[in-house]
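User: What would this chain look like folded?
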Amino acid sequence: PAVLRYMLDRAGTFFEPSLLKYFVTCIGIIPIGTLVLLDTGELAVVLRPALDRAHAERPFVRVICDAASTPLVPPLEVDLSDPDSSPPRTIVRLIDNTEYHLGTSRYVID
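Assistant: Here's the prediction, encoded as structure tokens.
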């Protein structure tokens, strides 16, 4: 997110605005495959950007571990932008995959 903020702040000077907008649309604010910690304590992997750009920080995720770090079998797919999801979840922070020794590609590819 810090790099993206840097790029967005320089749109029109260092970055072509239309290309930057296309780039952000393609990767989303939080790239596919990113491991995230949810406010529920769960770990999730980003599967795709939110459909509504107004909720770009609330992508569609696959919850892979509960708050006690127990793997969920099967993982739970959640649209973080859905106001009716229960419980409502938000991303607290991005996680370095090496922190949990998880390879996220197996969760992104079915």
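Strands lie at 35-38, 43-48, 60-65, 71-79, 91-95. If you want, I can go into more detail on any region.
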